[in-house]
């Protein structure tokens, strides 16, 4: 089965039969708006190195039901089709022919949270479906003030170093990016952003990058030709702030070191000055959140395996990178972000149940 670049296979049916039985759960990640199709192919392993196609079908993702809780999913029969390649029928060579049927339970799961970041530094724990979201408990205000002592990241005019710095912040579904300050080791942005907070046990991540698409020379010494597609912005360093360590209503103005791990050890690349304030909207809602599990209840009623969680995280991060790369202008995977990146992840849960052949 395939959704976009995600390909999963069932185990080979242990018995040779025309009515194979799998009873396996396969989970994919899909993002709104649903652009991909679910491609299902049944193959017959006739030799250890050869598989014959029995039948195939492609189904748009938006045709499947959306599930918000643990209610049962109705199963459906789908017809598998196969192209005809008869040598005696050249005019019907590409005609679709009925091959077999497959029995599936397919749904778009809205009760899970699909991780697209490290568990230790998670910034959002809400379920996929907006209908299940609780009201926000607070507001996070972040002022990206300045940086100082940045190291030169590339050469300019062939004989001196320079840095064209910008800052990216990510919390929950929302990304923000400051303007780029050209040729300055002590850039000043003085830009302010706000986020709604749904859980204080979360982390905001801020990264400082060097813009390599503005005509300066590349970091490797070549001429940068104004933003070639192969050039990647260099990461200067990043800062993480855990909201649970912030006292409500207090303004924190600190300089945070920008650290990068090198083979030789940790290197300080400069400092980032931030002003941060966390404001609570309701003390009762805050207490309610602390008294409940971190993840949505579906993670405890029908937990995903460790391998499934890691695979979903990897695929979700790939989807983020691909969609940001298609923005205008492109926002590359090393640090770009839209002002409001509000894509919602749906885990497409496919549960295979008894399948009958032709």
From TrEMBL:
Membrane disposition: Multi-pass membrane protein
UniProt cross-references to InterPro entries, sorted A to Z: C2_dom, C2_domain_sf, C2C_MCTP_PRT_plant, C2D_MCTP_PRT_plant, QUIRKY-like
GO cellular component, one term: membrane
Compartments where located: Membrane
Record SUPFAM superfamilies: C2 domain (Calcium/lipid-binding domain, CaLB) (SSF49562)
Superkingdom to which the source organism belongs: Eukaryota
Family label: Belongs to the MCTP family.
Protein name: Multiple C2 and transmembrane domain-containing protein 2
